[in-house]
Specification:
The complex is a heterodimer of chains A (283) and B (293). With 283 residues, chain A is mainly alpha-helical. Helices cover 66% and strands 3% of the residues of chain A. Chain A is built from 10 helices and 2 strands. The chains are: A mainly alpha (283), B mainly alpha (293). Chains A and B meet through helix 3, helix 4, helix 9 and helix 10 of A and helix 4, strand 2, helix 7, helix 8 and helix 9 of B.
Chain lengths: 283, 293
């Protein structure tokens, strides 16, 4: 039997790949409680990676899509609405399968884009890995969900704010940057916090669905399932992963609450938006 | 299926597809869509019933019942429910086997948990050993239904509880002024009126429930995801109908299926909302009154 320290050394970073710990995962009767705690904990690296990058990129894209959906030009708002409908109307689980099947159809040597004077070769082989391909799906998904939130917020920006901006002679991008964007963000923030939490929870689906885990380096829930398959005892691994996710959720709520404080700093205390946690996980 | 399907290798294009799409495995695939709809049809009322029980427990003035409701709703809502989907069927299965074990094999002397293994006697196996295959299928399916109902019941309970509190207090007071007991007021005033307040939340939960159905695949049920993977994968010449990797088309079909499902239910809920708003003391009801008369 391993001691806890050996477990930490062997499995603390095992989620990153074989180079960072034991070659093989523990099996059968060899599994100790510390193994489960540390290996599942190391899987969280991937959950945080997927969530942080998807939210980071998705935030920028969602702002664009929300503005496009809000636009009065039907050539702009129709495609944006369709994008939002497709990604919000279908299960993320199926999206993973679909995009994985799509990505493996891309030529392995890379996609060649003729630009006239030169040919650009786009390397597509990375898209079949979860680290890139799965991330693309998560980004598209969170973009659609957050775009819907931002769109709702854009529609409910107080009329007075916009009139005041006009009165001060703000227009175009300045008006957007100084008035529209901060108000939109402030109004959408409580629901956006929930969106960030759901996205973090959805990262558990990356390896469960289509994307393969190379060298058995997966995320937290992948390992929890591995342990349950090995031991046929769901009463240890699942509570561990649940506890980790509760901690992760609390951390996200904390970070977003700080941002919320800053977004609302100009308002009198009673008009501030409160953060509320409304869980609805499956997407 | 068709008479010309005897030798697939010598068929023209459209006949080949006609035969391919009606082969025995494809019929299983079409049945799987029925399984998904069946799951939705069973789970939705089950979750609603579970949610109603939860909401009543949340409203209850008896402390243990109230605590039970609060505990149920908060625990289920606080943990990623994919954990629940995988945890509940296994835990429940082991629980049932444990109970049967206590009843059927009282003279069993070994411990049930040996290291990591869960061992019960032969008579306590569930479903019984040597049952036909469909018994296993039905058993697995109902485990999934219970898991879904348990998880979504918690969400429904929260929504219904909020909706019951959203019914204007003045109406309840009026009912009591007319001499109704609390129970009568609940049944005649709150219960019929709360639906319009609950509907947005319920439609949300329904959408999430629809989108959770592919998780059946994780529970080892041969649902549409399973068949899409099987049928779309590359077939070698061993099969009667060899074809290249068509998974992307199969999953496109699933994607469209779910999009239609969510789109249709969105429209259905909009109409239902219109109907329920009629005569209600809400903004939508008021608008209908002005437009109608």
């Amino acid at each position: 039997m391993r001691t806890c320290l050996e477990s930490l050394q062997g499995y603390g970073l095992r989620a990153l790949g074989r180079q960072y710990g034991e070659n093989l995962l523990p099996r059968g009767l060899d599994i100790t409680l510390c193994d489960q705690i540390f290996l599942i904990g190391s899987g969280l690296i991937w959950n945080i990676y997927f969530a942080a990058i998807a939210i980071g990129i998705g935030f920028g894209l969602a702002t664009g899509v929300a503005l496009a959906k809000f636009s009065q030009n039907r050539w702009i708002n129709r495609p944006a609405s369709a994008f939002v409908f497709i990604f919000r109307g279908s299960p993320l689980f199926i999206q993973f399968f679909f995009f994985y099947a799509l990505f493996i159809l891309l030529p392995r040597t890379g996609l060649e884009i003729p630009l006239g004077f030169t040919t650009l070769t786009v390397n597509t082989s990375a898209l079949t890995t979860a680290q890139v391909g799965g991330l693309v799906v998560l980004v598209l998904n969170t973009t659609a969900y957050s775009a819907e939130l931002f769109y709702g917020a854009l529609r409910s920006i107080p009329k007075g704010d916009l009139e005041a901006a006009d009165a001060y002679g703000l227009s175009g991008f300045t008006k957007f940057r100084r008035v529209v964007f901060p108000s939109m963000l402030r109004l959408a923030w409580p629901s956006y916090t929930n969106e960030a939490i759901f996205l973090t929870h959805s990262t558990t689906l990356v390896f469960l669905s289509a994307f393969p885990a190379r060298q058995q380096s997966g995320e937290a829930f992948y390992y929890a399932r591995y342990f349950v398959d090995q031991t046929f005892n769901p009463f240890v691994a699942y509570p561990i992963v649940a506890a980790y996710f509760v901690a992760l959720t609390l951390a996200i709520i904390g970070i977003f609450a700080l941002a919320n404080l800053r977004l609302n700093r100009h308002l009198p205390r009673e008009r501030r938006q409160r953060l509320r946690f409304r869980p609805q996980y499956i997407r | 299926m068709f008479s010309f399907c005897t030798d697939p290798s010598s068929l023209p294009q459209w006949q080949w597809f006609a035969c391919y799409l009606t082969s025995a495995t494809h019929l299983n695939f079409y049945h799987a869509f029925g399984v998904v709809l069946l799951l939705l049809a069973i789970t939705a009322p089950a979750a609603l019933a579970m949610g109603m029980a939860g909401a009543l427990a949340l409203r209850s003035r008896i402390p243990p019942l109230n605590w039970l409701g609060k505990g149920y709703v908060n625990i289920v809502r606080g943990v990623p429910d994919i954990v629940f989907f995988l945890f509940v069927p296994i835990a429940l299965g082991q629980g049932i086997e444990w109970v049967l074990h206590q009843i059927n094999c009282p003279d069993w002397d070994q411990p049930i948990r040996q290291g990591n293994d869960f061992i019960v006697c032969r008579d306590a196996k569930m479903p019984p050993v040597n049952s036909p295959r469909w018994v296993y299928d039905v058993y697995g399916f109902f485990m999934a239904v219970i898991a879904f109902a348990l998880v979504f019941g918690a969400f429904v309970a929260n929504t219904l509880y909020g909706a019951m509190r959203a019914v204007p207090q003045a109406q309840v007071e009026t009912a009591e002024a007319y001499g109704m007991t609390q129970r009568q007021a609940f049944r005649r005033i709150i219960l019929p009126q709360m639906w319009v307040y609950a509907l947005p939340g319920l439609s949300n939960i329904w959408q999430i429930l629809t989108k959770a159905t592919p998780l059946l695949f994780l529970l080892g049920i041969q649902d549409i995801v399973y068949w899409a993977r099987e049928l779309g994968g590359q077939k070698t010449s061993l099969f009667t109908y060899p074809h290249p990797d068509w998974r992307v088309w199969y999953f496109l079909v699933l994607l469209c299926f779910y999009l239609t499902l969510t789109w249709a239910s969105e429209r259905a809920f909009a109409r239902l909302n219109d109907k329920l708003s009629r005569g209600q003391a809400t903004a939508a009801g008021e608008r209908q009154r002005k437009a109608g008369s």
